[in-house]
Amino acid sequence: MILVISFVGVLILTLAITLFATRTPAAQKVAHKRLRSIEPSKKKLDAGSEPIELSQLASPGFIDRLGEYLEHYHFAVDLKMLILHAGSKSTIGAFAAVSIGLAAGAGLVAHTFNLPTPLLIVAVIVGGASRYVLLRFQKSKRLKAFNAALPDAIELMARALRAGHSMASSIEVIAEQSAEPLASEFADVYQQQKFGIPFRDALLAMGVRVPSKDLHFLITAVLVQKETGGDLTEILDRTTHVIRERVRIEGEVRTYTAQGRLTGWILSLLPVIMLMLINLVSPGYSKVLFHDPLGQKMLYAGGAFIAVGAFVISRIVDIKV
């Protein structure tokens, strides 16, 4: 127990040192936030001076330099979109620093327990990917909350338009009376309109920030009505009906596939749980499995088969609506 506590303490200390060494000063964060809100165009400070990039006025920290370096690679675009869709305030540099720290900590713990090299590599990969998995979970959670509040928001917009409000004021009503994260997204659209950004561009920008099919239905319906004309309130009512029907069908599909998902979880976790329980009841029972070369090969093969089976089951029960 003392050994385990020591390793956990070393892991926490490693993460703390990593975060402390890669932190960005508060004043610099405020400066960069303000600079990012300005269009990245070159402007002259004086009539005869050379154009200076506004982002150069603040010296970047280690995390910012790391993020600028990683932005040269293609995966940075997908990572930026994931951070945006998850609603996170993190940056590419901060994401990379935390992932490296978690991977190093997981590798240290695996090395301390004297695990075989393949398991040590797996521990490092799991530790490094944990931040990415968390962002995926945050994205899914945020998207579900957005889709759940969207039909009511569309109905609220239709009622506001029937009461005589303009489109801009109806969006403001949604921003004030809807739940998060939908309220903040529509508030951004309203603020962008106030600053002179065209309504079409503001809606399309929200569609980029939120990868929701239901929101894309709404944006398409509103933009088509703006170009072709028609009763917008009736279009919104039909859009709400389509969204609610899609959500209903999706719920029924999830109900029908619940048994398949539960089967996948049971078949994937049962071997691991049984191995742990057997070792608790009879310590050292599976020692040969971890230390004998043939046992290690069987262990790796079993883990690979479990992973393949879980992937196949997940693809079978993943029905798109």
Q: Flag low-confidence runs.
A: 37-58
- Tally the helices: what do you get? 14
Q: Which radius of gyration do the C-alpha atoms yield? A: 26 Å
The CATH class designation of the largest domain is Mainly Alpha
Overall CATH architecture of the largest domain: Up-down Bundle
- pLDDT average, as an integer? 80
**Structural class computed from helices and strand pairing:** mainly alpha
CATH topology of the largest domain: Receptor-associated Protein
The rough form would be described as elongated
Distance between the termini: 50 Å
Strands, count: 0
What oligomeric arrangement do these chains adopt? single chain
The residue fraction in helices comes out at over 70%
Please tag this protein with its features.
14 helices, 321 residues, mainly alpha, single chain, Receptor-associated Protein, 3 domains
Model description:
The protein folds into three domains: 2-23 and 59-140; 142-255, Receptor-associated Protein (Up-down Bundle), CATH 1.20.81.30; 257-317. Residues 37-58 have low confidence and may be disordered. It is mainly α. Helix 6 packs antiparallel against helix 11 (232-256). It has helices spanning 2-21, 26-37, 62-70, 75-85, 92-112, 117-162, 167-177, 182-194, 199-209, 213-228, 232-256, 258-281, 287-291, 293-317. The longest helix is centred in the middle third of the chain and has 46 residues, at 117-162.
